[in-house]
# Entry
Amino acid sequence: MNQFSLIIRFLSVVLLVLSLAGCAGSRRHESTGEYLDDAVLTTKVKTAIFNDPSLEVLDINVKTFKGVVQLSGFVDSEKAANKAVERARAVSGVKMVNNSLIVK
# Structure
């Protein structure tokens, strides 16, 4: 019975280590915490853009990876594209904004 208990403990430790390793991030993959942080940033950027009546929100897509925001989609003018970038940069936690917006 003692040997069985030792095996169960060993397997539990191995499972715990593998679980924690699965949550770690790398250069190309986010950790669980980074994923959640990026989801919050995406929501904040979308809200900032949505609250600007001069921007058409439905045509602007926002994606975030490790604090870098990617704006894509279509806008009516260069001024609107610049305004969307300004709104995104103003959000706390945004490290950089990549502008891939296309002027219609």
About this structure: The longest helix spans residues 2-22. The CA atoms of residues 47 and 57 lie 9 Å apart. The beta strands are 60-65, 68-75, 96-103. The mean pLDDT is 84.
